[in-house]
Design brief:
It is a single chain. By secondary structure, the protein is mainly α. It has one domain. About 80% of the residues lie in helices and about 0% in strands. It has 14 helices and no strands. It has helices at about 1-25, 35-45, 50-60, 65-85, 90-115, 120-130, 130-145, 150-165, 175-200, 205-225, 235-260, 265-275, 275-290, 295-325. The longest helix is centred in the C-terminal third of the chain and has 34 residues, at about 295-325. The radius of gyration is 22 Å and the shape is globular. It starts with a helix and ends in a 6-residue tail after the last helix.
Length: about 325
């Protein structure tokens, strides 16, 4: 009897470990250190957008032209990489999905964001845009029927409060249309991020990003040409700014984000992405000599704390789930 019992326990242990590996391979995890690092690198790259954007504007580029060069340059960079490595093949359905995601989803939220800038300051528009983690949580709740945990909601609130302090819009003159457009841009980005997390389950991150950017470039480039024409940078500084926008601020961050979404659930990934404004402030101080305000320091601390708390709590929940499994055979964490 004891031999049978021992064998049964060993079989159960082996089975549970196999099932855990299958679950890790087929489903993004709340806590994956590589995934966390990838999303943080993505936030760092996106945080340079304001730096290169200001450099591009100083060289005579307007916002639409800068956006067109940003997307077009990133598309060329990624497709050049794929052609060199002969890795451009993806299933037709996945290619169509990625192209549509860029042509409609990414282009739409970009258009909403840039229109919001006409009715509100850059700081207020950015603050409204950074409501997107809340929309990600709502979309995830509606599509998966899994409500965010109470701790995730608290961490989300802390990160949003941190964005408020970091972007410092306490003295802004508020226009309702600007707020509506800014929040709509955040909702659009949340939908884009959610759909991206599903796309990259079946398509490698670089291929997914290349097709998505190709669709976005087609839409934004066409609109720019029709409305005003594209301003061509003619100076070395202008070309350098465009190169930075394309590669450092767009191609690499999107690939890192897509790679992170393969390893993390979309809600924690969205919360981690709010590191972007804090990192943007740090780089503005470091590279452009901008002054740090006390409110920005406090906001940055809140955002970083929310990212750390999210990881620590996810680890505790995972350990607790494992303990429950060990105590009740036959149940998976």
């Amino acid at each position: 009897m004891s031999i049978l019992k021992t064998t049964s326990k060993r079989d159960l242990s082996t089975l549970s470990e196999t099932q855990r590996r299958q679950r890790r391979a087929s489903k993004p995890q709340d806590l994956d250190h590589v995934g966390v690092l990838l999303v943080m690198l993505s936030a760092l790259g996106f945080g340079t957008l304001a730096i290169f954007g200001k450099l591009a504007y100083a060289q005579g580029l307007d916002p639409l032209s800068a956006l067109s060069w940003r997307l077009g340059g990133a598309t060329v960079a990624l497709w050049g990489w794929l052609l060199l490595r002969n890795q451009r093949q993806v299933p037709l359905s996945a290619a169509i999905s990625a192209l549509s995601l860029g042509a409609i989803g990414y282009a739409l939220q970009s258009a909403l964001f840039f229109n919001a800038l006409s009715y509100a300051s850059a700081g207020l528009t950015a603050l409204m845009f950074y409501t997107y983690p809340a929309f990600v949580a709502l979309i995830s709740w509606g599509t998966t029927r899994q409500a965010p945990t109470s701790w995730q909601l608290k961490v989300l609130g802390l990160s949003l409060l941190g964005c408020w302090f970091t972007l410092d819009v306490s003295h802004e003159i508020v226009q309702p249309l600007g707020i509506l457009l800014g929040i709509s841009a955040g909702a659009g980005y949340a939908l884009y991020m959610t759909l991206s997390s599903r796309l990259v389950r079946n398509v490698p991150p670089i291929q997914a990003a290349a097709f998505m950017l190709l669709g976005a470039t087609a839409t934004v480039g066409s609109i720019t040409v029709v409305l005003q024409g594209v301003v061509i940078p003619t100076t070395t500084s202008g070309l350098s700014a465009v190169l930075g926008l394309a590669v450092i601020s767009t191609a690499l961050p999107i690939v890192f984000l897509f790679a992170g979404l393969r390893r993390l659930r979309v809600v924690p990934a969205a919360i981690l992405s709010t590191l972007e404004p804090a990192l943007a402030v740090v780089m503005g101080i470091w590279l452009l000599g901008e002054q740090l305000q006390l409110a920005q320091l406090l906001g940055g601390a809140m955002i970083i704390s929310s990212a750390l708390l999210l990881q620590v709590t996810s680890g505790r929940q995972k350990n607790e789930s494992i303990r429950r499994f060990d105590g009740i055979p036959g149940q998976l964490p």
